[in-house]
Specification:
12 strands; about 35% helix; disordered N terminus
Length: about 190
Amino acid sequence: MKKYDFIFGIVSIVTILSFFSCEREHMATTPPLGLYKTNPEYFTFLAAWVNNSDNEVAGYPYYKPNDSRILFTEDDTIYSQRVQLNDGYVLSNEVFFGAPFTNVSFKEIVKKQDTDSSITSEILYNRIIDRNPFNVYYEVDYEFVSAFCDQYRDLGYSSAKVWYLSYQKAAEEINLMITEGKLEENFIRIK
């Protein structure tokens, strides 16, 4: 159990540090991104990480209103590093293979984390709605998305906007691969 907690802690720290910038030196240590399909659709819901015993939430992304990964529109709260693709696919940096989905939305967690009624690990565990959500899952190298960052950073955009635009550009490329049936030529299929 302690070994798992240590490994999870290291992976979490590396992930968090690497996603605050598009710096190339982080690429070698950054976990791969997820490219997946679920049924039903969980695009707006938070995924959690459970421990090896599957009896508690070991971690989950923490978002606040001033988080550079969160964009607000008139109608919604958007996580800038999760993008809907063609044919039901989703590209995301915080959903790892084996992670269950909860019924907690990004909007809800941002709202509650900004108040005294924040969502705890216990609450998240009780709100898990699917422990085996993936119909298809590919690993995408972090470099695939970060390669687009420089062009947007040079235009003076904020960190959140740089990542959002980089994910949108990566989505265009992946959508073409989906259409041409070339996902397995470019990414590692896990399921």
